[in-house]
Task: structure prediction
Amino acid sequence: MSSEPTGRPIELEADAFSGFYMALGESYSWTSIDDYFSAVASKGDYNFTDPSHHGAPKERLAAAQLGFQTAVEAIQTQTPLTNADLHQIFSTAIGGFDEKQVLHADDQNPVANDFLAHLDIAQILDILNGVSHGKSAIVTIKLAFSPNWRI
Result:
């Protein structure tokens, strides 16, 4: 989105990366993760033309959720992801946020396509549409981890 007057797409991708790495941390309590999601959303703003605009609260929360879900999927399927894979997954999905949809990657990266197909896109769209504030996503993600998973 090179026509974007702000760093929003890059910052939303950074939120997705932070969600990804937050999910991988074994020492976080669920309260800490809930606090993390709240903090990400609280840093959103509506200064759409300001060069320092990082995204609206819902967009930032949806991007963090995208990253978190990607990590959960990677853990469950034991699929290693490269930074290039993560960039493709995150930038592709975030590219559809304005249209309230999550796009799919082109055929150049089958790993990204596979991950985008398996993520809970409905939860991300609910966040973007203001239907969910991420709380139900936390419950869903808790259930997705095996009982032996320490987080």
